[in-house]
């Protein structure tokens, strides 16, 4: 179970890193032109960059606290925050009729829920 949680956290961290880098460093106009980036047309560039920075922090928070054994409970907290972020993403993509992205975000949400459940519960770093 511990290995499965580490793999899930690593996969989700990679997703967060990829999304965070693109939202933080790719111009909003270029993101808007990409498949699934239409949502950026309705928000400001600062909002997009803020989401990107949050995703970069999530990438770090899903792995580093446990790997460095510094406040490892932050892995669980980060997973819960990711769940909230994915709910917002699913609502946004749903409003735009992008069901493929809703489904993808649901998978990410499920991974985060698995991590939160596992790290708060049976495979807690505190026990």
UniProtKB/TrEMBL annotation:
The principal location of this protein is: membrane
Extract the Pfam families matched here. Answer: DoxX_2
Membrane topology annotation: Multi-pass membrane protein
Keyword vocabulary terms for this entry: Membrane, Transmembrane, Transmembrane helix
Instruction: Establish whether keyword Transmembrane is in the entry.
Output: yes
| Residue ranges of the TM segments | 56-89, 101-120
Q: Does the keyword Kinase apply?
A: no
Q: Which InterPro entries match?
A: DoxX
Which residues belong to the signal peptide in this entry? none
Localization annotation: Membrane
Q: What protein am I looking at? A: DoxX family protein
Q: Which organism is it from?
A: Streptomyces lutosisoli
């Amino acid at each position: 179970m511990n290995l499965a949680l580490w793999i899930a956290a690593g996969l989700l961290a990679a997703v967060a890193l990829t999304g965070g880098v693109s939202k933080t460093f790719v111009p909003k106009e270029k993101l808007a032109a990409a498949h699934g980036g239409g949502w950026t047309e309705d928000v400001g560039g600062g909002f997009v960059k803020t989401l990107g920075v949050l995703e970069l922090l999530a990438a770090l928070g899903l792995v580093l606290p446990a790997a460095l054994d510094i406040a490892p409970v932050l892995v669980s907290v980060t997973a819960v925050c990711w769940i909230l972020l994915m709910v917002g993403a699913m609502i946004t993509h749903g409003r735009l009729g992008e069901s493929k992205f809703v489904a993808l975000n649901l998978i990410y949400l499920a991974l985060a829920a698995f991590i939160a459940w596992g790290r708060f519960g049976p495979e807690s770093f505190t026990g």
